[in-house]
Design a protein that fits this description.
The chain contains 9 helices and 6 strands. It is α+β, with helices and mostly antiparallel strands.
Length: 290
């Protein structure tokens, strides 16, 4: 089991001596959502970085930040061929429009791309591979962090499942004979309310039996035990489990809520309220599971 929260970091040195640092952070999210921060010169690496993240993470919001720290000052690069071509294009357009054809050096130097810094040049294949290697290393560190948090999370969920099972065992024992007790209580109350009146005894017993049957929580208890077994099995299996565990916790909530609405005996109701509190705690923790 892995958590969706974690952090990973890696550093490397580019061929020109610059240092590259990659930081990966993850938090909870229903789906895989990637936030990527790359320098403009490395934007072509975005598909490869996204693919590397998708191979490591199945869901969660993941931020990947790539920073470079250059040890040398950027140099100015002048492109004379581009300046000549743009000047020639201007002369042709100016002649047709009847405008002055002369361009000053200042005019040429301010044209886009004529003068740029060495930082704006495309990185070498070696530099690109170095960045990708750092991304993969940071993702491996991030994944190890998620596994560590996931192991701790699994212990918490196992403890919650055990607490819920213990409460369900008590509820199962307490509910024994609940229908018979409710039936006798309802019959007695009805006799007192209708004392001295002419009432069909068989109809009275049928109505009391129906009310007692509606208060029976046997099915809810049995379904909860079944869901608990599936929950434990999923906890111990390999691969992403968050969505399945979240579904099962919703079923816990549904069954405990239904049982507490049907139950009329105070001891059982108290146990069900405790069970609902455990389910709420499980629901909160399951949100962190990948």
């Amino acid at each position: 089991m892995k958590s969706m929260t974690g952090i990973g970091r890696a550093t490397g040195v580019l061929p020109d001596g610059s240092q590259v640092t990659v930081v990966v952070r993850g938090v909870n999210h229903r789906f895989l959502d990637l936030g990527l921060k790359l320098r403009e010169e490395f934007l072509d690496l975005e598909p490869a970085v996204r693919s590397a993240v998708a191979n490591t993470v199945s869901r969660g919001h993941v931020d990947v930040t790539v920073r470079t720290n250059r040890n040398v000052r950027p140099e100015a690069v002048f492109d004379p061929d581009l300046a000549f071509r743009m000047a020639e294009k201007w002369r042709e357009a100016a002649v047709k429009a009847g405008l002055p054809t002369a361009l000053t050096a200042s005019d040429l130097l301010t044209l886009p791309g004529v003068v740029r810094t060495s930082e704006e040049t495309l990185p070498s294949p070696e530099a690109a591979e170095c960045v990708l290697a750092c991304v993969r290393e940071a993702l491996a560190s991030f994944d190890a962090s998620r596994k560590s948090e996931g192991a701790a999370l699994a212990l918490i969920l196992e403890k919650g499942a055990s607490d819920l099972e213990s409460l369900m065992v008590q509820i199962d024992a307490e509910r024994a004979g609940i229908s018979a007790r409710l039936l006798e209580g309802l019959k007695e109350r009805m006799r007192k309310l209708l004392e001295g009146q002419s009432v069909d005894e068989s109809r009275l017993l049928a109505e009391a039996a129906l009310l007692a049957d509606r208060a029976d929580i046997t099915e809810e208890v049995h379904r909860l035990f079944t869901h608990l077994g599936a929950f434990r099995q999923r906890l111990r299996s390999e691969g992403p489990a968050g969505k399945q565990l979240d579904f099962l916790v919703q079923e816990f909530h549904r069954e405990t809520n239904t049982a507490s609405q049907k139950c009329r005996e105070l001891p059982v109701l108290r146990l069900l309220l405790e069970a609902k509190a455990v389910v709420e705690a499980l629901k909160e923790q399951v949100q962190n599971v990948e």
